């Protein structure tokens, strides 16, 4: 098995982070990997916002928690009610990928860019976890205005489609289990 496949199989969502920030070189590499994702017609209709300001991360986390609290989904409501539950798991970096809504497939392009970044991070020993609550916040009633007020540098006409946190996991913690893969998910037509 080559290193790429090993990284794909080994990557897991990390939900406990060291407070220390990820190295600038690693961040650059992760962002570069994101920008080399495929995109419809090669439009690259994405914008990457890297949030590393602890106060802003806390503020965003609190806002996202309130969206969970008011969601129709029982699991999300239950999570939000747990005071100790931190939606960003205290990770030091959040990356939001926003897409140009006039592009052909902005949401797909942004999601592919994010997956590239998750895999790049894993290959560098940087943990990550997708955090959908950021997009849910944007899609909530007041979300658009809230995002504007936070001055995240998202260009006009762009909407956030993918968000994930990044940081170093604790090596003393057990590596998360991938769980068994669901059977019968592949058909061959030959
Ligand atoms: C679209 C999407 C949204 C997700 N949102 C969250 C989230 O808000 N919080 C979280 O802890 N994990 C989130 N995850 C991570 C999944 O829970 C995780 O990928 C899944 O349980 C499989 O685990 P693994 O990533 O370790 O393989 C999300 C994943 C995807 C693809």
Notes on the structure:
- The protein is α+β, with helices and mostly antiparallel strands.
- It has a single domain (16-167), classed as NADH Oxidase, CATH 3.40.109.10.
- It is built from seven helices and four strands, in the order H-H-E-H-H-E-H-E-H-H-E.
- It has a four-stranded antiparallel beta sheet with strand order 1-2-4-3, sandwiched between helices.
- Helix 2 (24-35) packs antiparallel against helix 5 and helix 6 (133-139) packs across helix 7 (143-149).
- The longest helix is centred in the middle third of the chain and has 18 residues, at 106-123.
- The mean pLDDT is 95.
- Bound molecules: flavin mononucleotide.
- Flavin mononucleotide (FMN) is lined by residues 12-13, 15, 129-133, 176, 178.
Topology, pairings included?
Layout: H1 3-10, H2 24-35, E1 46-51, H3 54-69, H4 74-81, E2 93-100, H5 106-123, E3 127-130, H6 133-139, H7 143-149, E4 158-167
Antiparallel strand pairs: 1-2, 2-4, 3-4
> Could you give the order of strands across the largest sheet?
1-2-4-3
CATH topology: NADH Oxidase
What form results from the Cα inertia axes? globular
Attached small molecules? flavin mononucleotide
Query: What portion of residues is helical?
Result: 40-55%
Instruction: Report how far apart the termini are.
Output: 25 Å
Report the uncertain regions. none
CATH class type: Alpha Beta
The number of strands is 4
Tally the structural domains.
Answer: 1
What oligomeric state do these chains adopt?
Answer: single chain
Order of helices and strands: HHEHHEHEHHE
CATH superfamily: NADH Oxidase
């Amino acid at each position: 098995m080559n290193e790429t496949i090993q990284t794909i199989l080994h990557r897991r969502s990390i939900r406990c982070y060291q407070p220390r920030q990820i190295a600038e070189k690693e961040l650059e590499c992760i962002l570069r990997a994101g920008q080399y994702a495929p995109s419809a017609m090669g439009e690259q209709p994405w914008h990457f916002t890297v949030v590393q300001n602890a106060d802003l991360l806390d503020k965003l986390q609190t806002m996202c928690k309130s969206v969970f609290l008011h969601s129709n989904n029982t699991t999300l409501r239950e999570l939000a009610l747990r005071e100790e539950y931190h939606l960003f798991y205290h990770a030091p970096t959040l990356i939001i990928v926003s897409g140009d809504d006039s592009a052909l497939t902005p949401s797909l392009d942004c999601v592919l860019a994010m997956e590239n970044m998750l895999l790049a991070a894993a290959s560098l020993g940087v943990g990550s976890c997708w955090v959908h609550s950021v997009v849910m916040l944007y899609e909530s009633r007041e979300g658009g205005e809230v995002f504007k007020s936070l001055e995240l540098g998202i260009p006009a006409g762009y909407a956030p489609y993918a968000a994930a946190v990044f940081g170093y996991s604790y090596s003393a913690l057990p590596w998360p289990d991938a769980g068994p893969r669901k059977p019968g998910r592949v058909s061959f037509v030959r």
